[in-house]
Write a structure and sequence with these properties.
single chain; about 90 residues; mainly alpha
């Protein structure tokens, strides 16, 4: 069975550039929550150090505060924070 839709109905159904039949790409939304490198809020050195300290604490807590892993906790926490804030 053939489609009975007319050309004008097809034109209304799809957006095109200057009537040339080229589909128009959707514009990105301003409220996009997707993180992009360099687009996040700036974090001061003091705030970054606080975030690293908290992350290191939680890593130490996760391993039962066993002695000897403090440096590793800090290094991994620092890498994680830097990755997250860009």
């Amino acid at each position: 069975m053939q489609s009975t839709q007319t050309r004008s109905q097809k034109a209304k159904a799809t957006s095109t550039v200057a009537g040339r039949g080229v589909p128009v790409a959707a514009k990105p939304r301003k409220g996009n929550s997707e993180a992009r490198p360099g687009s996040g809020p700036s974090v001061s050195a003091q705030e970054r150090e606080l975030l690293v300290a908290r992350a290191a604490y939680f890593r130490a807590e996760k391993r039962g505060f066993a002695p000897g892993g403090e440096l590793q906790d800090w290094v991994e926490a620092e890498a994680e924070v830097l990755r997250l804030i860009g």
